[in-house]
Amino acid sequence: MPSAETVKTTPAKAAAPRKNARDDARKGATEPQAAWSFRLPRRVKVASGPDTLGRSAKKTMIAIGAAVMAWCFGYTLAYFVDQQEIAKARAMVTSVVERIVQVESGGDPNAKNPRSTATGAAQFIDATWLELIRKHRADLAARPEPELLELRRDPKLAREVTTYLIERNAKVLKRSGQPITAGTLYLSHFAGGAGAVAILSAKEHEDAATTLALADSTGKMSRDKLVKANPFLDGVTAGGLKRWADRKMTGETRKVKKQGTRTAQATRSL
């Protein structure tokens, strides 16, 4: 039989494992299991000192800020320059329009060329006016043709359409690599965009009327028709016509100017 001492100590020893089990259970509720436990990585030491990363970040931010400011300044400057160029171009167009009106009709809104259909302050021929008014003023396009043609006598509308034509011709000149000046814009008004490009691209001694006739995309224009509508073209070279257009815009008087005509877009006349 076991001794009394053995009997006394056995229950205490037997209870110890149960107590430990309860303690383990409580710890398990607050501590992660071994399978989910992790260790934080050791702190990486920077050899050059703890503030190196901060200084580098500051330098980077300063560089980025400087780049952004430089871009903004450059964009603002470019925008300002563009606006100046646009303002200059608009002023030039306005000046050319007024000069064309004076050259073509002396400012008379009822002017009529007896040799062609050119009418109004800017001396638009029928075909050119109908094309432009229908494209530029869609709100008027539905009106009867006679009524549309009569609108050439409206000085305000005539200037508006002339401005539209000049801007369109300027694009043609630019695409063709030709200079955009008051003279070349007037040449475009007189001979059409294609006609002006043909004259500007031709050799100085080439016949102007023949060059214009060949530039007519419709094939309906001949040298004889051009000379009939514009007698001064007979014998004029491409170089002479360019100088004539320049003089028209500067106000110089020459013999060829006195023999001039009022037939805007001559290559499409008749």
Automatic annotation (TrEMBL):
Residue spans crossing the bilayer: 61-81
Keyword Transmembrane in record: yes
Region annotated Disordered, chain positions: 1-33, 251-270
Domain Transglycosylase SLT per the UniProt entry, residue ranges: 85-178
Bias type Low complexity, positions: 8-18
Basic and acidic residues composition-biased segments: 20-29
Keywords: Membrane, Transmembrane, Transmembrane helix
Composition-biased stretches (Polar residues): 261-270
Family from the record: Belongs to the virb1 family.
Name of this protein: Transglycosylase SLT domain-containing protein
